[in-house]
Known about the structure:
381 residues, alpha+beta, Rossmann fold, CATH 2.40.50.140, 6-stranded mixed beta sheet, 5-stranded antiparallel beta sheet, 9 helices, 34% strand
Amino acid sequence: MPRVVLEELSKVFPGPAGGQVRAVQGVSLTIEENECLALVGPSGCGKTTLLRLIAGLEEPTSGTVTIDGQVVNHLPAKDRQVAMVFQHHALYPHLSVYENLAFGLRVRKCPRAEIQRRVSAAAETLGLTACLGRRPRELSGGQHQRVALGRALVRQPKVFLLDEPLSNLDAPMRAQLRAEFARWQLRLGTTAIYVTHDQVEAMMLGRRIAVMKDGAIQQAAEPAVVYGHPANLFVAGFIGFPPMSFFKGRISHRGGALRFEEEVPAGAPGGLALALDERLAGPMKEWAERKVILGIRPEHIARRTAAATAPGTQTVEAVVEVVQPLGAESYLSLAGAAQSFLARVPATEPVHALQRISLVFDMARAHFFDALTEKAIGSDK
C-alpha cells in the first residue's frame, strides 16, 4: 500500500458578497503505508473537503496531493486508485448484495471470474456471505454499511477514504462495526484515512490522529500523545470525554515557590491556589506573573478521602452541582469560584447534589497554556 503526502494543500470557495471561504488552509500531512489516520474535528472544520481533495472530487486552490510517489492533482477521480465510503450508503435498491458489490467491477469490464473471486473474498471478510442474494431492504443498518465498505474493498484501491461511515448507526451497532473495522484494517494492512467527528472513534481506529479546526491541522500524532500532550487549548478541550476543565489565572512566585492562582470576578471568594510540582516548576519559571490557562482532566481530580496523599496532590473545596452516574464511576459537576469543573469518582463513593466535598488536584498531570496564543507551555509535542 502507498503513502499519501499532502503539501500546503488549500481550498478556497467563493463566499457571500464576493468574499471567500477558506475550507482547507495549508495542510501538510503524510499518511504512511498501511497506516489508518483518523481525521477528527468539529462539524465544518474542513475534514470532508480535505478527503474530497485527496479523492479528486474537488480541485485544490493550491498545494499538491501525492499518492504512491506520484502527484495526482491533474488526475481525475477515476484514475487515482482510491475508494471512498460515504456517510450515506446509497446502495442500488433493485440489486442484490452480490450485484451491488460487483457493480463497479462490471462497469470497469473486469472478467467475470475475477469479479466472483473479489466479491466472494470481500463478503467473507465482512461477514456478508449469507446475505449475497438479499436486496438492500432486507438488510440491517450494519449490513448496509458492510456492503458499502465491500464496494470499496472489491476495487482493491491504493487508498481507502472513509467519510463518517458509521455516523447513521445506533450506538451498539457503531461500537460493533468500529471493532470489526479495526480488525479488518489490521488484517488487510490498508492505507486509510478515516474522517469522523467522534473522538472515541478516532482514538480507537487511528494509528495516528490529526485534529482539525478551521481548515488547519492543529496536531497530528499517536492517540496517547494527542491525549497526554495536547499541542494547544483546542486539542486539549476537544480530545477526551468528558472534556478537560480550564481555569484562567496567572503564575505567581510566593515564598520561593511557583503556584497557579485562579483569576476570579471581583467580590467572589478566593479561587484556586495550587503549587506547581517539580516537573512543571522548571518550564513555568519564565511565566511568573504572566497570564496562563490551567487545564486538568476529570480523572486527575479525585475526592480527598479516595486519593492517596502522594507528592503533588493538593486539596480544593467545592460544591457538587450535578452527579452523573455511569455505572462503575460517576462524573461530578462542581461549582468553583469562577466556573464549574468536572471530576471523576468511583460509583461506590456516595455523593449528592449540593454536598460540599474536598478534592485533590494531581498537579503532576496538569497542563498549562499561553492565555494569548493558546499554545501548550513547556511541550514540543
